[in-house]
């Protein structure tokens, strides 16, 4: 079967996932720069894959093409798969790094973040009211979905106010898999410089934040890598979750009315959004530590593998009417936050942010509506993330 080349710009990611599914549970795909990988879409294969010790995320140890020098810094996704952090580690190294990072995402710490989330939400809604006064059109992605997660994650990391704008801009570029290798490398260097400065500052004057914990227990480079991972993963996914939820609610007024009336919970709204509009579609890359078989397909040692996180939520074998947004449905199975050793430790925080911010938005602006319900809202750039690129809206009376 001919290799399906993934759209690096991510212009229609969920439609692309359906094409992958039609090709079988494991299929060959092309990545930017001519690299090929195996894409896995079937939940019955993904769940064991994500806990299989024969599958690694450490490219330096287990990607044959990188070890042999075939993959160079000019490859567009080089920074994605070679950066040193918990995200790209394996085995004992991953467990060591995750043990430290996980201390920031305990149930107690997550609950303790609630006042900060509420304050960030209130501030965003005040700014939104000012921007949308007198019938002005506002972009809900920019004015609502973005500021809340970036403020929360920067508070958690202890990022000074003066650095937050730059960190957000750098994180956006690194999430865009259609960016050039030159831009990605320059951005990676600039962001890493800022993060290292932050780590060193926290070593000198520690606080109660995550970066202080990392700085105290890890070498500078490992602390910086873990803090950078927290910054990118901790805000980008939540931005897309909020933006997608708002779009779905504004285009499904019956669901919005049910949520506001308490007929369905906001928790269910968030979970259904994660299923039908996952904030992450693909996670590059994993690597076969040894020869193995997935769904009857032989995978050679050193071959790259992509876990298609966006596939199970819309699998017609798992869900009736999989593309329909229905928080009242019984089965909302998905793996939007991954599974296994690399399961996102920030999932409870992301859910809490959405469960606080969404009802507050519609309580404050009950007449909120899209400026043009039929407009093409675009998609965020890159094939990793998924969400509307913009949400022009009117606040109403």
TrEMBL record:
<keyword id="KW-0479">Metal-binding</keyword>
<keyword id="KW-0503">Monooxygenase</keyword>
<dbReference type="GO" id="GO:0004497">
    <property type="term" value="F:monooxygenase activity"/>
</dbReference>
<keyword id="KW-0560">Oxidoreductase</keyword>
<protein>
    <submittedName>
        <fullName>Cytochrome P450</fullName>
    </submittedName>
</protein>
<dbReference type="GO" id="GO:0016705">
    <property type="term" value="F:oxidoreductase activity, acting on paired donors, with incorporation or reduction of molecular oxygen"/>
</dbReference>
<dbReference type="InterPro" id="IPR001128">
    <property type="entry name" value="Cyt_P450"/>
</dbReference>
<dbReference type="Pfam" id="PF00067">
    <property type="entry name" value="p450"/>
</dbReference>
<dbReference type="InterPro" id="IPR017972">
    <property type="entry name" value="Cyt_P450_CS"/>
</dbReference>
<keyword id="KW-0349">Heme</keyword>
<comment type="similarity">
    <text>Belongs to the cytochrome P450 family.</text>
</comment>
<keyword id="KW-0408">Iron</keyword>
<dbReference type="GO" id="GO:0020037">
    <property type="term" value="F:heme binding"/>
</dbReference>
<dbReference type="InterPro" id="IPR036396">
    <property type="entry name" value="Cyt_P450_sf"/>
</dbReference>
<dbReference type="InterPro" id="IPR002397">
    <property type="entry name" value="Cyt_P450_B"/>
</dbReference>
<dbReference type="GO" id="GO:0005506">
    <property type="term" value="F:iron ion binding"/>
</dbReference>
């Amino acid at each position: 079967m001919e290799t399906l080349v993934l759209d690096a710009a991510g212009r229609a990611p969920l439609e692309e996932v359906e094409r992958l599914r039609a090709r079988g549970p494991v299929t060959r795909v092309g990545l930017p720069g001519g690299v090929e990988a195996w894409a896995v879409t079937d939940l019955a294969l993904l769940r064991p894959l994500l806990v299989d010790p024969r599958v690694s995320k450490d490219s330096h140890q287990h990607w044959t093409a990188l070890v042999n020098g075939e993959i160079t810094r000019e490859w567009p996704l080089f920074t994605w798969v070679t950066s040193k952090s918990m995200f790209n580690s394996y085995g004992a190294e991953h467990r060591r790094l995750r043990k430290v990072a996980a201390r920031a995402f305990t149930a107690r710490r997550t609950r303790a973040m609630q006042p900060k989330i509420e304050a960030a939400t209130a501030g965003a809604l005040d700014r939104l009211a000012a921007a949308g006064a007198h019938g002005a059109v506002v972009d809900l992605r920019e004015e609502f979905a973005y500021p809340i997660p970036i403020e929360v994650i920067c508070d958690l990391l202890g990022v000074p106010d003066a650095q937050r704008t730059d960190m957000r801009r750098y994180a956006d570029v690194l999430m865009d898999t259609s960016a050039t290798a030159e831009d990605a490398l320059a951005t990676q260097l600039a962001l890493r410089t800022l993060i290292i400065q932050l780590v060193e500052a926290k070593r000198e004057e520690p606080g109660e934040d995550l970066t202080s914990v990392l700085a105290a227990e890890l070498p500078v480079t490992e602390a910086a890598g873990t803090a950078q991972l927290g910054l990118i993963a901790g805000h980008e996914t939540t931005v897309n979750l909020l933006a997608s939820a708002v779009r779905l609610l504004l285009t499904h007024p019956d669901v919005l009315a049910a949520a506001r009336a308490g007929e369905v919970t906001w928790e269910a709204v968030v979970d259904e959004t994660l299923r039908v509009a996952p904030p992450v579609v693909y996670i590059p890359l994993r690597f076969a530590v040894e020869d193995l078989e997935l769904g009857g397909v032989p995978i050679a040692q050193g071959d790259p593998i992509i876990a298609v996180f966006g596939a199970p939520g819309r699998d017609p074998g798992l869900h009736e009417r999989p593309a329909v947004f229905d928080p009242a449905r019984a089965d909302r199975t998905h793996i939007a936050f991954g599974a296994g050793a690399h399961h996102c430790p920030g999932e409870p925080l992301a859910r809490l942010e959405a469960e606080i911010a969404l009802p507050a938005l519609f309580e404050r602006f009950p007449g909120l509506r899209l400026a043009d319900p039929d407009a093409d809202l675009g998609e965020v750039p890159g094939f990793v993330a998924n969400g509307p690129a913009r949400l022009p809206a009117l606040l109403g009376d």
